[in-house]
Amino acid sequence: MKIPNINALSIRALIKTISLCFLIAMGVTALCWSFGGFIDYANIAMIFLLSTFLTALAFGRGAAVVSAFLNVAFFDFFFVAPLYSFDVEDLQYLITLAVMLIIGLITGNFVSNLKEKIADITRRASMSLALQNLSQGLFKAQNIEQVIATSLTSLQPAIKAELSMYLLNEEEIIIPQNTQHIEQVMAIMDGSVATPSSEPEPNLGGEIFIPIQSDWKKFGVLLAKDLSPFSKKDGREQFLQTAADLIALAVLKLQLARSDEASKVEAATERLRSAILSSLSHDLRTPLTKIIGLAEEVQSKAANLDVNSNHTLTTIANQGKRLSNKINNLLEIVKLQTQKPTLEKAWQPIEEVIGTSIKYFSSLFPYRKVEISIDPEIPPLYFDEVLMERVIYNLLDNAAKYSGPDSVIEINARRRKEFVEIEVRDYGSGFTKSPTSLFKAFAKGDNDSVVGGLGLAICKTIVDSHGGTIWAENVADGNGAVVVVQLPLISAPNFDLDLE
Amino acid sequence: MILKILDGMDLASGYAGSVAAAISEIVKAPPDLVVLDLGLPDADGMALIENIRRWSELPILVLSARIVEHEKVKALDAGADDYLTKPFGMAELMARIRVLLRRRSASDTLSPKFQFGNIEVDLSARKVLKCGEEVHLSPIEFQLLNIFLVNKGRIMTHRQLLKEVWGGRRIESNHYLRIYVGHLRQKLEDEPARPVYLLTEAGVGYRLEIE
After folding, report:
1. Which of helix, strand or coil describes residue A371?
2. pLDDT tens-digit profile of A8-26?
3. CATH superfamily of A341-488
4. A331 touches chain B (CB under 8 A)
5. A385, B202: Cβ pair inside 8 Å?
């Protein structure tokens, strides 16, 4: 049996209870008295017992105890001989009184226990129902505002405290904004304060802050402010914690759905871009193939062509190939600038890619002389073969454009401590524009060839993505120009060649 | 236009504008060679290659745009025999077609002896001569040369070469391949940095051109 705390509040309550039971006992006495001798003692005792029982039912344990004592007193005073005194004549009545007291106390206690249990169960049931509603509501919620709304609606009926909730919305701002608790909420979110769930003071009512979080991230705070000072706390903290966990799950689900959405959009955009690039690629190249093919066909079929016509056809074919190259550059720079270049790097000797670049160049410029000088000390480098071929080809193409048809183009590859330098040198007129501006897309060269300006920009993009540098300078005394590509030497992993 | 070139080569040809039509044509009257443009509208040239390869070894020549190297590699690994990059010249197309058709007809009468430039190779005797002098090749180098000769004129992807020489091991690292090709070039080519026979096709593989 719980002993209530004795303090100012309790004493006042005690007095209230005593007065109440006094009045009840008086009422019962008056009732029985007015019936005069029609009711037997035994029955009067029963009626008093009944009133104790009912008091217990209506007013709880404390009242039941008081009522038991008071009823016995009244019964004794008003109905047990000698009347109007607390003396007891017949010892039998002593037993009656004692039993009455005992029964009163027991039933009173029992009834109030029961009452408390029922209240407890009802409360728990209502909490369960609230959590169920919360689950359903969260499942349907499409955004953070809805989460907050449905949570408060579902949870509030089950708990006698003022509930409020704060969550991070999509832009990572706490909503709702207007709150006197914002500082404490921010403190919890920062993690600078561990859950400051203050101990509820019996007289003052307390505030409980419950963070809404998943393992690694805080989404918000659930706040319960107690309204009535004496309300029971049983199961409240756990209820709120469960609610907070459910809400955290819902927020997590929303976040995942959002990022899923975002990556779907990104993937779709990617696919569209690739599709456009490849269809453009195809549509531009097919006519070119025809042009080149037909020019060559006429050449081979017409055996008696004069030199001029023959030359014209060769030019047509060559120009077709060069146009195709320009298209490559264009499409490549679109690709490189709109998507992160997916480099397929591999360890390979620099000779190979220089060789293939020269071969391709020679097929388009068959009369240009190219001299190679490659330092044998250069170890394998880590780079994307296709892209680097494009770089070297573009440099050769550039050199060819700005130098006379009889002048030599040199490619040199040297090792410089932690770098490898590949330079393309021509003996032409040199750069007139400032060398750095050449590497910007669409920089105009001497002949105002705009599309040519793409070549160097592509080189820069590719070289940059390999962690290298590219620069251009004029050779001293106006004897041409040189473009240098510098690539870092990364130490190759140990490839064991023991595979014989 | 390709049809005209084929006419010029005295070859009969058929034409299909879509993968679906192509499949029915090929099944109806199996040709000696298929030229497939990878830019076909109804998607996957790759599906056509895989389809054909399920029931035939007939040569497939693939045409593709230059920018998508991995597409070519995919086609070759799926079973295509060779490829041409658009735009290409007539001569190249004719040369490739000739190589593929010849492989097809001559596959049972191969000689172990090859001669190109100042190089002589005898595959059965395992001897290689350059300018009359014997060149020593390690077993792997020889095996590589062997594979190239048997597939001469035809593109071999890195993956195919790695598989032929090293079996299942290390199929991902092209580095070994490059080193050995480098060795072969050093030993056989006059100017290793500017190979004439053992050609690199960037991003795809290698081709031995000894015509």
Report:
1. strand
2. 567 787 788 888 888 888 8
3. Histidine kinase-like ATPase, C-terminal domain (3.30.565.10)
4. yes
5. yes
